[in-house]
Amino acid sequence: MDHLKPLHIFLKQEIDRMQKVITIVRTTLTDLKLAIDGTIVMSENLRDALDSLFDARIPSTWRRISWESATLGFWFTDLLDRNAQFSSWLFQGRPISYWMTGFFNPQGFLTAMRQEVARANKYALDDVELTNEVTKLLREEVAKRPVEGVYVHGLWLDGAGWDRKLARLVEPAPKLLYTALPVVHVSAYSRSAGNKSKATTVYSCPVYKKPKRTDLNYIFPLALNSSVDPDHWILRGVALLCDVK
C-alpha cells in the first residue's frame, strides 16, 4: 500500500506534469530540426520558438505548461534540477531534504505531508495545522530524514538576515540582497492535542515561489524566531522566496 501514501501520489502527479514538459520540449526541438532541414513546413509556432531560442528566451509553448524564469538558461537549469530530484525520489526513495522550488504544486506537497502525519497519529485532517522549525544545518549536513514531517531547503530571505547560531532573524548584511535560510523542518500538529512547540517571539513569514509577490506565487507562512517585535519585519516587507532568479 506504500504507493497509495499521499506523498507518493503527489510524486506521480509531479512526474506526470514533468513528462508533459519534456515531451513538448522534445517535440519542438525535433520539429525545428526537421523544419530547418526542409523536411516539414516551418509553422508560426515553430518560427516563434526559433526566434525565442535565438534570443535566449523561453518559447511561449514551453512557458505555458511549465514555470516562469528570467532566462532560457535558468529555465533549462531548473528543468535538469527538477528532473534530477524526481528521478532520485523515484528510484532511490524519498529524499532526506526536499527542494521545494522544484515542485509544480508546492501547496500539494505540504497537504500530502499533512495527510501522512494525520494518518500516522490518527488525527482528524481538519484539525491538523502546519508547524516548522528552522534547523542550524545546511543541506549537505543533514544525515537522515526526520521522524515525522519533512526537511525542505532552497529558501531565501528577502529583506532580512539570519543568525544560524541563535536561529533567528537579524538585520541583513550590507549589499546582500538575499540570505539563504538553513534547512527547515516542516511538520504538522493537532490543534486539539495542543502539542505545538511554543516560541517566544515569532514572525509569520510569507513564502513565495518567485520574487514577484502575488497571490498566485504565495505558498504558505513559515514561523521565524525574532528578538524584536514582528511588526519590525512586517514593515520591512520581509518574505521567503523559493527562487531568486
Structure description:
The structure is a single chain. This protein has 6 helices and 11 strands. With 245 residues, it is α+β, with helices and mostly antiparallel strands. The protein has 2 domains: 2-94, Substrate Binding Domain Of Dnak, Chain:A, Domain 2; 103-241, Dynein motor C sequence, barrel region (Hypothetical upf0131 protein ytfp, Roll). The strands form 3 sheets. The chain has a 5-stranded mixed sheet with strand order 7-4-11-9-10. It has a 4-stranded mixed sheet with strand order 1-3-8-2. Helix 1 packs across helix 2 (44-54), helix 1 crosses helix 4 and helix 1 runs antiparallel to helix 5 (106-121). The longest helix has 32 residues, at 6-37. It is globular, with a radius of gyration of 21 Å. It starts with 5 loop residues before the first helix and ends with a strand. The model has no long low-confidence stretch (mean pLDDT 94). This is Dynein heavy chain 8 axonemal. One of its GO terms (biological process) is microtubule-based movement. Residues 3-242 form the Dynein heavy chain C-terminal domain. GO terms for molecular function: dynein intermediate chain binding; dynein light intermediate chain binding. InterPro entries: DHC (IPR026983), Dynein_C (IPR041228), Dynein_C_barrel (IPR043160).
